[in-house]
Amino acid sequence: MLFNSYTFWAFYLLVFIGYWALKHKHQNTLLLIASYIFYGAWDWKFLFLILTSTVIDYFLAQKIDSAGSQKNKKTVLGLSIFANLSILGFFKYYNFFSAELNDIFLIIGIPSMLPTLDIILPVGISFYTFQTMSYSIDVYRNEIKPTRNFKDYALYVSFFPQLVAGPIERSSHLLPQVIQERKWEKDYFLEGLYLIFYGLFLKVVIADNMAPISNYIFSKEATSLTSLEVLLGMYAFAFQIYGDFAGYSSIARGIAKWLGFDLMVNFRMPYLANNPSDFWKRWHISLSSWFRDYVYIPLGGNRLGQLFSHRNLMITMFLSGLWHGAAWTYVLWGILHGAYLSIFNVFSNTRRNKTDSFVKVKKIVSIFIMFHLVCLGWLLFRAENINQVYEFVNKLFLFDVNSTVFFVGSISIMAFYLLPLMMYELWMEKKGLMAVLSQKAWKQALFFTYIIMMLLFFPSPTEHEFIYFQF
Amino acid sequence: MIDKKSVTILVLIILFISSIEIVLHFLQPFLSKDLKHYKEMDLVLEKFNNCNKDKVLFIGNSLTREGIDTQLFSEQNKCIALIRPDDTTINEWAWIFKSKVSGRINIKELKIIFLGSQLKDKPLEVQNLVSISNLVSTNEIFEVIHLEDLDFSDSASLVLAHWSKVFSSRERVQRRILALLPKYKEQSRLINQSLVHAGTRTEDKIQKNRYRHLKMLIQLAQEKKVRITFIAAPLPKPYKIESNLLDIFDKYSSISFLDARKAWDIQDKDFQDGYHLNARGASKFTKYILDNDKKYQRKINDF
Question: Nearest CA of chain A to the CA of B155: how many Å?
Fold first, then answer.
């Protein structure tokens, strides 16, 4: 049940009508049933998995809370993390690690020992596993009290707007909203409408129209492409993944808003970041802040000196890469971003006073460089294998700048779709994320009409699933 | 639940969209010749129905539009009508016959020019649903949903396309605007070719051995005592016709098959592109069809 399908909106309409007709206690029951229907629509067998994950953390969090000594608390927390990571590890990483280990065994002359299993990756498993883990850790840290209501907790884990592709909510933010009675605020309608339509625009108009260009480039041998075409493929994928993921998060926030929930902002104009640290404060904020709070800071953060700070950054980003998928390209993507952050940390300490105009120019240049560094990362992220990355990078630095028909056609299409988007994002950078909603009524109506017309007239000829479902 | 400002914005959005809908209502025929053809279809058929001479109706697509020299039929003292919306195959042709012809137009003869797998059912995409929505009446919408076994999303697309000009013109508007971009057509051709090679295009998804629409059309025609001639179009490159299809042609006495794949005298220079005949080719092809008709008539007379 995809957000950009009629089926989802028919389902949502029924939930919405029923929801606001019910009292709070029954609202949560309805949302829980709807969330399980939503998740079961992919494959009903996955329901057992999410239920198992929910039951484990529901009871273990209570054990953590009631365990007397810190040592006992730590043991139960360890058990919770082990259980969660075992489920995630089996479904997401078993085949990857067994294949890698078998290769190593073969090199040292031992026959393959670990069988490859036919495992289907349950949709959204990485998202809800991180959400349940954060709950147990927050209980351990005494940041929240465990809930005694299983239904409320199950809804916190499975809340359908953000279940399969985030934002990864923290218990301290979402759980109180589940428990407390929700009220409809007068701003909710327009805010929800804006988030939904802008999200659909990012997905249907931006991401889906960039996908054919990047798919075309990445399906070709590097030898048949020019450097400009490789660069174009990276740009197209950068906006495909941004439109896809930021679009999903925006729709999730919008439909949650109409149910009286406030989900966290997950993207904030990431391609206007002027350094790696800024980028991770703008891109997949719910995941980067999760890794910051539950991995980087517990490892010591930057408190133990620069060397340890670099080590901690590399470990955190390595794990972040691995979170995205069981492939070396994702791992390298994480390491690359770890390196960006480390290098930036070294140079960001050397500050000099400059004039305003210099600062402005420096910012523009920094945004340009940062965008290209991110695109280099996307090459790793999108490539079929390491070999393709190697060939594409080689091609890129051959500076073969022949302008082909495909290049000219694609760059004009990208300009058509992306220039208005980037101009709007620059405007939002100045005025604020929801600035359009403080404009005059006719301006807002024009904005919505433009979005609706773009959705109607410019969907991609081929539909594409949301990329982040696979993570 | 909704404050005054939100209501104002909603009303304005509805007003803006309605204005675009009204503009498109009048502009639609100018967006493409094809849309104009849909709009004029009823008139063409009505005029054709009122003709007192021998009548020949063609249902097809651009192969028919470019392949038939109507003048030659007129010279034979026959009335001719070409119903030939672009990019259509048997799915749409069956609905054209059912909705626009059967029981409304008095004909004895129908000719269908086809190519390769165009007589085989295809999975309906949004564009096909838009075409069908242009062909059927409001009363027939539920029949289409039922007979085509449409899921919820496709049913919604069909209904929207039937009621909204904005929705039904979207592909044309998109094409018109994007065609203004430099090298857009060439770029999309390259992408389409790569999709065909990757096996993700509709052409590759055509289900095997399914001729439901063809049989529906044949049975309807049989009921109305209309003889159908299926004509395999000539092409510069040879192509195959499935034996299952030939079996269907053999099975029904009310239909005949004219294999014009290698129609005499048609050469590569008679084509304007890889598929469509030019004026000279159309003239040769039409003569070939007329000759065949004469032979058939002689046979009947002899019998």
Answer: 10
Residue A13 three-state SS: helix
Q: A223-260 as b/e, with b when 16 or more CB fall inside 10 Å?
A: eebbbbbbbbbbbbbbbbbbbbbbbbbbbbbbbbbbbb
Tell me which of A284, A310, A324, A464 is the catalytic residue. Answer: A324
Report the DSSP beta bridge partners of residue B230: B112, B257
The B residues from 47 to 76 touching A (CB cutoff 8 Å) are none
**CA atoms in the 13 A half-sphere facing the CB of B153:** 12
- Which range among A78-92, A111-125, B148-162 shows the weakest confidence by mean pLDDT? A111-125
Which tokens go with A413? 């299409």
Which residue in chain B has the smallest CA separation from A213? B191
Do residues A163 and A190 make contact, with C-beta atoms less than 8 angstroms apart? no
Do residues B284 and B265 lie in contact, with contact meaning Cβ atoms separated by under 8 Å?
yes
Compute the CA torsion angle A401, A405, A410, A416 (nearest 10 deg): 110
Which of B13, B160, B195, B197 is the best mutation test for A, with the most CBs of A within 10 A? B13
- Average the pLDDT over B14-18 and give the result: 94
Torsion angles phi and psi, residue B232, rounded to 5: -75, 120
ipTM: 0.81
Are the Cβ atoms of B3 and A10 closer than 8 angstroms? no
Type of residue numbered A190: L
Angstroms from A141 CA to nearest CA on chain B: 40
Please say if the pLDDT value at position A464 is more than 80: no
Distance from CA of A123 to the nearest CA of B (A): 22
For the record, the structure tokens of A288 come out as: 């980067």
Question: What pLDDT, in 10s, does the model give residues A299-347?
Answer: 998 888 888 889 999 999 999 999 988 888 899 999 999 999 999 988 8
**Predicted TM-score of the model (pTM):** 0.86
For residue A115, the number of C-alpha atoms closer than 13 Å in the C-beta half-sphere is 3
| CB contact B137 to A (< 8 Å) | no
Q: What angle do CA B140, B143, B149 make, to 5 degrees?
A: 140
Virtual torsion, Cα A237, A243, A245, A248, nearest 10 deg = -150
Q: Does A184 touch chain B (CB under 8 A)?
A: yes
**B28 in reach of chain A (CB within 8 A):** no
Give chain B positions within 8 Å (CB) of A406.
Answer: 186-187, 190
Collect all residues of chain B within an 8 Å Cβ-Cβ radius of residue A216.
Answer: 190-191, 194
Report yes or no: B5 at the A interface, CB cutoff 8 Å: yes
A234 within 8 A of A379, measured Cβ to Cβ? yes
Our answer to whether residue A24 is catalytic in this structure is no
Contact A449 B177 (CB under 8 A): no
CB pairs under 8 A between A and B: 95
Selected residue with higher pLDDT from B28 and A188 = A188
Q: Are A171 and A156 in contact (CB under 8 A)?
A: yes
Better-predicted residue by pLDDT, B134 or A284: A284
According to DSSP H, which parts of A349-404 are helical? 356-382, 386-396
- Preferred mutation among A6, A228, A442 to probe B, highest tally of B CBs within 10 A: A6
Whether residue B187 and residue A416 make contact (CB cut-off 8 A), yes or no, is no
Residues 6+ apart with CB under 8 A from A355: none
Report the alpha-carbon distance of residue B178 to residue B186 in Å, rounded: 12
pLDDT in tens, B71-121: 988 888 888 999 999 888 999 999 999 988 888 888 888 999 998 788 998
Q: CB of A77 within 8 A of CB of A136?
A: yes
Each as own residue / partner, the long-range contacts of residues A23-31 (CB below 8 Å, 24 or more positions apart, any chain) are A24/A181, A24/A182, A27/A182, A28/A151, A28/A152, A28/A155, A28/A178, A29/A151, A31/A155, A31/A159, A31/A160, A31/A259
